[in-house]
Amino acid sequence: MTATTPSPASSRPRPARLSLADVIRTGGSGLRSRPLRVFLSALGIAIGIAAMIGVVGISASSTAELNRKLAALGTNLLTVAPGKTFAGGAAHLPDEAVEMVRGIDAVESVSAIGRTDAKVYRNDRIPAVQTGGISVYAARTDLAGAVGIDVVSGRWLDAATERYPAVVLGSRSAQQLGVYQAGPEVQVWLGGRWFTVVGLLATDELAPELDSAALIGWPVAEQELGFNGYPTTVYTRAEEDHVADVQQVLAATANPENPNEVDVSRPSDALAAKQATDDALSGLLLGLGAVALLVGGVGVANTMVISVLERRAEIGLRRSLGATRGQVRTQFLCESLLLSALGGLGGVAMGIAVTAGYAGYRGWPTLVPPWAMAGGVAATLVIGGLAGFYPAARAARLPPTEALAAT
């Protein structure tokens, strides 16, 4: 029986395998040796991620606030207004428009306002040209319920006040007239006579035209101001499941003779359109955040390249002690990933803080989608991997003798 002699290849020592914990510990020690440079590089990544998280979070919070408003105000409000005649002149709705619309089966409530030619002033000494853009409307007593108006001071018009010189002011018109509280002693000069301010309204999202309005009773407008009785806006609340159906027949119902002279709109659509505009702006800001993230990635790459140049002696010593090229490459790639992850986590925290601060300032619910946070961290890891690939490969290619000679 003869003994076998081991071959040179089988007797060659194999390099030790590095565990994941060893790789992370080695990469972390490289970062701890340059804290200021690491902080500045991570800050570049963090700013890009914070910008992206902030934009997404603020946009999501704005959408949540819009949905909350629409849930409170309702999306079933429709408005009917006169359009233009075939000749291009101003059309008007019939006197019976409100009652005809009320006859639609799926309609829950109907009310209207009618614009007058009267002007309103704080007192009778103000020049007539200084109107302040406040419109005087005749209003029905059921308008508050149909539109969902909130009275912040005083009360809405009722059967006891609609026939007398009483007025309810919208939020903006009250501010322009310097009226901050309703009461029997508070009066404004309207249509050449004194009207008592019996109520002040809150801002209305679905009927913004009422914010700059002075609203008086329908009968007193006809008796004292020469109002012609034609409604200029009819507000209709439809059943939620039949809003589209009601919207299709409103024009023909409000003005059967000339349905083409009627404009029908859904105020909640205007709010949704505004949100779409905000989303377009958010897309632009998101692109700027991506640019900032790219700049941060370039900063990480620059940091890692300089680190390889400064640590050639360390690389040569590791290689001479048996570290493989793959282990050196893994070490520097791990450093790049850790550096980017620090920036990513910091950026997510900053983005959440920015979103919470802005949403709190605006009175919105704070909402940061989980996918945005996870996507932000994932993006930083991708950026870190790409930024650290070349420096890691360069470090692995350094010959041990050349690296040690650099000392």
Question: What can you see in these coordinates?
Answer:
By secondary structure, the chain is an alpha+beta fold. The protein is 54% helix and 14% strand. It contains 13 helices and eleven strands. Strands 1, 2, 3, 4, 5, 6, 7, 8, 9, 10 and 11 form an eleven-stranded mixed β-sheet that branches. 39% of the residues are buried. The mean pLDDT is 81.
What structural class should be given to the helix and strand makeup?
Answer: alpha+beta
Gyration radius, rounded: 36 Å
- Whole-number tally of structural domains: 2
Number of strands: 11
How many strands, which pairing sense, and closed or not: the largest β-sheet? Answer: 11 strands, mixed
Q: What is the terminal separation in angstroms?
A: 54 Å
- Give the strand content: 5-15%
Portion of residues within helices: 40-55%
Question: Averaged pLDDT, please?
Answer: 81
The outline comes out as elongated
**Can you tell me the residue ranges where pLDDT is under 50 for at least 5 consecutive residues?**
none
How many helical elements?
13
